[in-house]
Amino acid sequence: MGVGQAERVATASEIRIHAQAVRDALADAGLHNPRIAEDGSVVVHSDVPSMVVLGRVTTQLHVIVGDHVRVFFDTTPAAARWATSPL
Predict the structure, then answer these.
(1) Among 14, 25, 62, 72, which residue's beta carbon has the most beta carbons within 10 A?
(2) What is the reported pTM?
(3) What are the residue boundaries of the structural domains of the chain, listed by start?
(4) 40 neighbors 70 (Cβ within 8 angstroms)
């Protein structure tokens, strides 16, 4: 399910409350070096970026955090600049 008007996006502080579980889910999906932006966007590295993996982990993070979590690969232009804080 995509982010619709009724779907709330998690804040950085809400994601940090669940940081260990989020890091574990990302690692289980083969995603590494998670960083978080002030707006709550999470940027990760993958040796083999896959939108399928990204979709699955986003769904899993929604369950963990309780709201939608935006996840981007570090290959996304500018991602490394706006998500500099380790998760």
Answers:
(1) 25
(2) 0.87
(3) 12-86
(4) yes
**What are the CB-based long-range contacts (under 8 Å, 24+) for 18-27?**
18/64, 18/65, 19/87, 21/64, 22/61, 22/64, 22/65, 22/69, 22/87, 23/87, 25/57, 25/60, 25/61, 25/64, 26/57
3 state SS of 79? helix
Q: What is the pLDDT of residues 8-25, one digit of tens each?
A: 999 999 999 999 999 999
Give the DSSP letter of residue 10. P
Name the residue among 37, 43, 44, 45 with its Cα closest to residue 13.
37
Token duo for residue 43: 């940027």
H or E, element range at 61: helix 51-65
CATH of domain 12-86: 3.30.460.10
User: Regarding beta strands 42-45 and 71-73, do their DSSP bridges make them parallel or antiparallel, or are they unpaired?
Assistant: parallel
